[in-house]
Amino acid sequence: MSDRTPVRPFRSRDWFADPARSDMTALYLERFMNYGITPQELQAGRPIIGVAQTGSDLSPCNRIHVELAKRVRDGIRDAGGIPMEFPVHPIFENCRRPTAALDRNLAYLGLVETLYGYPIDAVVLTTGCDKTTPSGIMAASTVDIPAIVLSGGPMLDGWHEGELVGSGTVIWRSRRKLAAGEIDEAEFLRRATASAPSAGHCNTMGTASTMNAVAEALGLSLPGCAAIPAPYRERGQMAYETGRRIVEMAYEDLRPSKIMDRAAFLNAIKTVSAIGGSSNAQPHIVAMARHAGVELSPDDWSVHGLDVPLLVNMQPAGQYLGERFHRAGGVPAVLWELLQAGELAGGCLTVTGRTIAENVEDRESHDREVIFPYAAPLRERAGFVVLKGNLFDFAIMKTSVISQEFRARYLSEPGREGVFEAHAVVFDGSDDYHRRINDPALGIDERTILVIRGSGPIGWPGSAEVVNMQPPDALIQRGILSLPTLGDGRQSGTSDSPSILNASPESAVGGGLAWLRTGDVIRIDLDAGRCDALVDDAEIVRRKAEAPPPAPESHTPWEELYREKTGQLAEGAVLEMAVKYRGVAAKTPRHNH
Question: pLDDT > 70: what percent of the chain?
Fold first, then answer.
């Protein structure tokens, strides 16, 4: 028997040591024996620690966890716990069709049922590919047992002919070079494959790196966990320490509800701005907050995040990649800068049992080419602009990727800085875009805004990363590498496109993009947070009476259920019926026989 007493009795005792139901105890114990566990282990009063395994051959970004789990299990055993590893629904952004956004909520559902319905006292959430992080944290909030995040880490830096090539980012930049005739398709493929030199997730500050940084900023990972490259020895050491720490958390009853408060989420928003993080952080952070019972408003992104400067010089907003970011100090060094500037709520509790301020003490970076001082940043005021208008109630724009060339062309008219007008060319989904983008009859020029609709949670379904549309080849060949873009879907966190995206409500549910027409003029005022089509009210009413663009039919039962239950990106695209369930593990499920 353990000589330690948990703050709250371990829930696994209701399975394995219930004196009132010896018949059920026998049933629960019996089948675990067939792979060698002993009754003494399960009845010794030691915590059962789940290891939520997201790694598999279908999830290459997370496959490192197949190996890391061994070190997690070592740490759990050495600290006195009993590890139980189990699979989680796979999520792989690059390959899942029609979009991996469908899988975040599905993985969440499956993980909730596993954590609630099995004798698990605490859990290690293995993360990597972007949606594995929010799905795990969402589930941990719903169940509310002690939980800790272990990210798998980014790939090693990619190199091609002496040049850093970042995963994802090199795709978007190379397709422009292909369109310009500067490279051929074979070179395109060489550049893309060079960006993936090892195990791990994206080595850029895409959504994967962003969301694992968010987990650390929320206080759900051990300090320094997010940025360690997957092949580094420190990654295995972090896995071991994470295993050890979750056992102590089980005894301390240190649950997500004690860590994830509003101040922690505001810390996360500020961190995303400082690192030049992905616009996909917006729906994921909102989703995690809603499942945690924390209220965030759309204005929080502007009020708390917009004025935060860009501190991390990492692609796509900067120059370097994940290895250099880790060696520069990673997330703790960024949090240290925010803390010194008074931007971080340092008193927030973390999985270490200490505050976030205590965790980042003396973590100042000494590589100022990668992590800039708050007082002398890479870019001032580099957060997210929240927009609304007659086309949508909410959309967001990442300002850290607005290039000087883009700013000069669209946002620098004397007396109208930050304001521009452009005529819309509207596409119904990405197939329509790829089919017609080079059609000269569309009249696309420097004063065009490319609009894509039918790409939101309901219309796609799942919300697709398609808003980062590039100009037609003819414009690229003239040196115009980007146009304003707008859509009700998302874009890859590795993209350097300054898009207006996540527009809600989407066209499929009657949002304004449904009535927008090619040729309409759109006015965008970034300072006022407005985006409006310059169409008179009577014409808008007439157009709204017309049938909206058709959405594709559902092809699987889950697609149909997802469409029925999922809300908009502004609200996190969660299963709306699920947010009312919170702390469900406080009551043990009824017996099964």
Answer: 100
